[in-house]
Amino acid sequence: MADNLTEHVAGIGALAEPARRSLYLYVAAQPEAVSREQAATAVDLPLHSAKFHLDRLVEEGLLDVEFRRLSGRSGPGAGRPAKLYHRSSRQLSVSLPERRYD
Predict the structure, then answer these.
(1) Model confidence at 25, in pLDDT bands (50, 70, 90)?
(2) Roughly how many angstroms between the first and final C-alpha of the chain, as a whole number?
(3) pTM of structure
(4) Is 49:40 a contact under the CB 8 Å cutoff?
């Protein structure tokens, strides 16, 4: 239980940082995965800061990443796929002290 609690608290704790929380709320509210640039613009952050915070949210399991070409082109010369972020299906909850319903 202690490891599970530590993991949950770390994930929720990642949202204590205001910029990170803003990015998470923006990405989680979008129906489609978003790019770093879209997220940075939406929450008015410099791109380098958005990259850092988005990747931290991925590390904590709150966001997932997918890679996709946005140009619609494929094959050689089509460019590198974009890194896109979307809300993770992981659910977190913490109850202190732990509730026991028995």
Answers:
(1) very high
(2) 17
(3) 0.76
(4) yes
Question: H-helix or E-strand containing 51?
Answer: helix 47-59
pLDDT at 69: 80
Instruction: List pLDDT tens digits, range 27-63.
Output: 999 999 999 999 999 999 999 999 999 999 999 889 9
**Pairing mode of beta strands 63-68, 34-35:** unpaired
Q: What's the CA gap between 66 and 36, in Å, rounded? A: 12
Question: Which DSSP string do the residues of 68-87 spell out, in sequence order?
Answer: E-SSS--STTS-PPEEEEEE
> Measured at the alpha carbon of residue 41, what is the angle toward residues 43 and 17, in degrees to the nearest 5?
30
Q: Left, alpha or beta for 14 (phi > 0: left; psi -120 to 50: alpha)?
A: alpha
Token pair in block for residue 97: 């002290």
What pLDDT, on a 0 to 100 scale, did the predictor assign at position 102?
A: 67
Beta carbons of 86 and 63 less than 8 angstroms apart = yes
